[in-house]
Amino acid sequence: MIVNTELESKGNQFPSNIVNFQKDVDKLYFYTDNDVILELTVVRDSVLRFRYTTVGNFDNDFSYAITKYASIGYNKLEIDDKKDCYEVLTSKLRCEISKESLRVSIYDAIDGFLINQDEIGFHWEESYQYGGNIVKMSKISNDGESYYGLGDKPNHLNLKGKRYNNWVTDSYAYGKDTDPIYKTIPFYTGLHHNKAYGIFFDNTFSSSFDFAQERRNVVSFWAQGGEMNYYFIYGPAMNDVVESYTDLTGKPHQLPPLWALGFHQCKWSYYPESKVKEVTSTFRKLKIPCDAIYLDIDYMDGFRCFTWNKEYFPDPKRMVKELAEDGFKTVAIIDPGIKIDKDYAVFKEGLENDYFCKRADGAYMKGKVWPGECYFPDFTNPEVRDWWSSLFKELIEDIGIKGVWNDMNEPAVMEVPNKTFPDDVRHDYDGNPCSHRKAHNIYGMQMARATYQGLKKYSHPKRPFVITRAAYSGTQRYTSSWTGDNVATWEHLWIANIQAQRMSMSGFGFVGSDIGGFAEQPSGELFTRWVQLGVFHPFFRVHSSGDHGDQEPWSFDEDVTDIVRKFIELRYELLPYLYTAFWNYVDYGTPLLKSLVLYDQEDVQTHYRTDEFIFGKQILVCPIQEANAKGRRMYVPRGNWYNYWTDEVVKGGKEMWVDADIDSMPVFVKEGAVIPKYPVQQYVGEKEITEITLDVYYKNGKEKSELFSDANDGYDYIKGRYSLRTFSLTGRSNELIINQHKEGKYITPYNIFEVRIHGLPFEITEIQVDNEIVSIDLLKSNGTQTIKVDKNFSELHVLGNL
Ligand code: GLC
């Protein structure tokens, strides 16, 4: 499958000289004398699209990845016909296209720095077997250049020196070196000389990336068919590259309901009903917060989607209602394989309407999955997606299921050598008929999209919640995701940490792993350490195969239960902080997790770090990833940081030892941060929140923090019914000022902020709220200085003696 990009490869062909040039608004066409055309689109001043054909005309331009909401438009576009090249100039980039070879060089328009340069550039090999081309691109890898992104690759965060393939694959018990696995996100960020840029190769065929592995100074990417079609995205800040990529491929269409950011408990499988109830009531009895309980495939009748096993679940509607009364949202699994059974309504409808995938010569695509032999809906057909979405009416509207979990949508097929559809299977591809070679990588995405459509409709006016295993770029618009069938080992804890960070820098933030490991059984210690990491992953779910024992928080010993409870409680306290980060992600594409390189690219020490990351904007986390640890060494990025547990301030920019026995983990808060916190609840909505705590971390200097609030579900926030509070902190040696700026029409249920000031270097002599002196007798001190203020304060001024 993998083809080298070597220039020596016998079949390689290359563009010849440019003979003609044309401009059509934002599209520039460069014609060569061997039928190669380069279409360069100026998407934005910092985003250029390069598209090549070798046959003198382009195919229909269609992409599942690019969203119709992507920002377009530029401030400047000048084209200069020079002696050896064409020069394209925007306000951010200068791009040269060589007349002799069509090779591209891209410079920073402001300082003239060469950011990215073609090596051979575009070349191709004819595919005699399938028709079309194997399309290839090679670029120079610069001194000290690092590479990041590419979705769920389970190895080192920095991709340099590695080669990867993208072909969505069911990968039970994958390891660090397994490639490819579940997702295809052909997007990476390159970083050198403090300039970051991104490349998104929007091609759904099997694609490969070589990050200076084959040749030390060359990066190349290629695909087994389709067009050479990529976007170049300039930063120079890595965060801006990721935000632009996310803008292009789409932010989630709405915020998740807040409960979806709570804790989820899952297992293959909880049944019958009494077992489900036993699990949920134990959570309540032991006072371990939990919002969601999952039903895996055994809830169905013979694994037929959209049916119930009436022996295990005689009255699902009643059960789901009772669970809801106890604060549990029920999430159910739905797979793509539809059992071949002429008495099964979903199968009959699919067959009658010709909704199932077919082989090249017209036979149905038949494959074995859990229910035995199945047919598979062609989710790339919009009519099939509409039908599929309508199937959720009963499950959601009538029975009251709150979330749907899409699995096996690579699509996974058992007992065949390649574990998926054969290449010849036909797909509609939204009116661009093609084979599975082209549709494979987006099949799962389109299934999740159709599921999302159904949930969005039938959950209304509440928000939908979907989870998917398979994904292509852009899938984040519709759904959350998990990292598939991992294993209960320490190495997998390391992998989970990498994957969540990598997905975040690949535009897909709402991600988590099967906490504790899906296959095999974790020790209590491993389980505890994994929950600790999970607190800081956007999707927070324990799941296991159930073959090797239980993985509920009480399945180990009492110490484990107590520590796990404490950490899940921390997650519930941090919900307003995480929700605010989510709002930033949904509105601006800001990554939810920032690897250190994404946080501080200027500091080269961060370029090869893997373990530490920033959760949201101001909390630094580093999981413990080995047994018997009493702490660990970690790199603390530049700036001053408060140890979350002790309030000790450390100066970053260096590696240091941090104590973290089993009941703790390294967590730091950026100085100057204002961290909003909820009281602990057993589930979202258990309590009416009348007070929010603001943990204020004194800084001699300035820092901005935010708090976003709304109804925690529904769509009112889109109509302006949200509340965004910006806290601007200014600290001096004997005073601390917090100014609040308010925006939005939502009236929050909370009226009071309990302000807890950490690390104040002076003794308080006076406090003013909006210029009025408040009695300092109101100050409580329990390590921190605490005062309650009205939520609408404009300025809180704390004065003191040195
Ligand atoms: C797959 C999923 C796993 C699920 C199982 C049964 O292995 O990845 O999460 O529990 O199928 O449905």
From TrEMBL:
One biological process GO term for this chain? Answer: carbohydrate metabolic process
Record keyword tRNA-binding present: no
DUF5110 domain residues are 691-759
Q: Which branch of life, at top level?
A: Bacteria
Q: Which InterPro entries match?
A: DUF5110 (IPR033403), Gal_mutarotase_sf_dom (IPR011013), GH (IPR017853), Glyco_hydro_31_AS (IPR030458), Glyco_hydro_31_C (IPR048395), Glyco_hydro_31_N_dom (IPR025887), Glyco_hydro_31_TIM (IPR000322), Glyco_hydro_b (IPR013780)
* GO MF annotations, alphabetized: carbohydrate binding; hydrolase activity, hydrolyzing O-glycosyl compounds
* Family membership noted in the UniProt record: Belongs to the glycosyl hydrolase 31 family.
In its UniProt entry, what is this protein called? Glycosyl hydrolase
Q: Which organism was this protein described from? A: Winogradskyella aurantia
